[in-house]
Amino acid sequence: MKKLYFLFTALLIGSVSYGQTLLEDDFDYGASAGDLTTISGGNWVNHSGSTTVLYDTSSLTMVNYPSSGVGGSATITGSNSEDVNRTFTEQTSGTIYFSALVSISAVGSGNYFFHLKDTGNQFRARIGAKDDGSGKILFGIGATSSTLSYGTTPFDLNTTYLIVGSFNIDTGLSNLYILSSHSATEPGVPEATNTSANTAAMSAVAFRQSSNIPVATIDGVRVGTTWNNTVVSTVLNTKNNQIEGFSMYPNPTNKGYVNISSRSNSNMEVSVYDILGKQVINATVTNKRLDVSNLNTGVYIMRVAQDEASITKKLVIQ
Fold first, then answer.
1. Nearest-CA neighbor of 310 among 297, 300, 318, 301?
2. What is the rounded CA–CA span in Å between residue 317 and residue 250?
3. What span is annotated as the signal peptide, if there is one (predicted)?
4. Does pLDDT of 15 surpass 90?
5. Which long-range contacts (CB under 8 A, 24 or more apart) does 232-235 make?
6. What is the pTM of this model?
7. Alpha-carbon 149 to chain mean position
8. 3-state DSSP assignment of residue 5
9. Residue range 32-45, pLDDT digits in tens
């Protein structure tokens, strides 16, 4: 119990002292493909358009990226029109980093598809891609408009890259990094940069579908206030002997339950602890659904054991 309490306390102290991970979405939404907003249980919501962003059961991988190879992924295309977002705690100052694994199978004349947004329609750090004229990809970033500043490095189709964007709310500076392998430190020179004098608080990360965006698979979306807690750190998630294909949704939840599943059909032994380390749930889950209706609003640690593996996750009750 002391070890669990120390883990939780260390996470909170680290968040205060060195920034915090604001969002981690591994797209752990089960074994059925379909409309992302529906399958995510409301984690992702529509803010424009109607032809859906889709959820796919396959995932993208990159060695050492903390959100690699878990669950499924999102897919976007220029022939669809829906734009969706997932919220995080609003940031009113400082720098926000957001990252994802992205694989592009086709690219057009250029448009943005991944960005930050506020509670309304203010978009920042708009990340896009275009054909370089020879069938390769150029990535770019915009500030407050759809006009992007593109880098000069040609990237390959059907290849997984780690895309990291940053936006400084105080200065309006947006930076873009495209990595073919994981980096524990922020590169000294971005692939592209853009600046606007119009700053704004940010509270969501978004996918955009429109003409001339790439056909892309996106996975492992993370948001934080430093490079480390976005691209490097995990959120209460041990990778050693971890349950394969573990899925947990919706999270946060206000439905009185959370769905949990994996590639195994064995029963799951679930323990949930509050912020003081007190066990509040000890249950055997046989139907892939954990009843959390008796929990108060707050943050909990959920530990799941199945067969010879286990996993620890943060559970948020709204």
1. 301
2. 10
3. 1-19
4. no
5. 232/66, 232/184, 233/21, 233/66, 234/24, 234/66, 235/11, 235/21, 235/24, 235/66, 235/313, 235/314
6. 0.72
7. 24
8. helix
9. 999 999 999 889 99
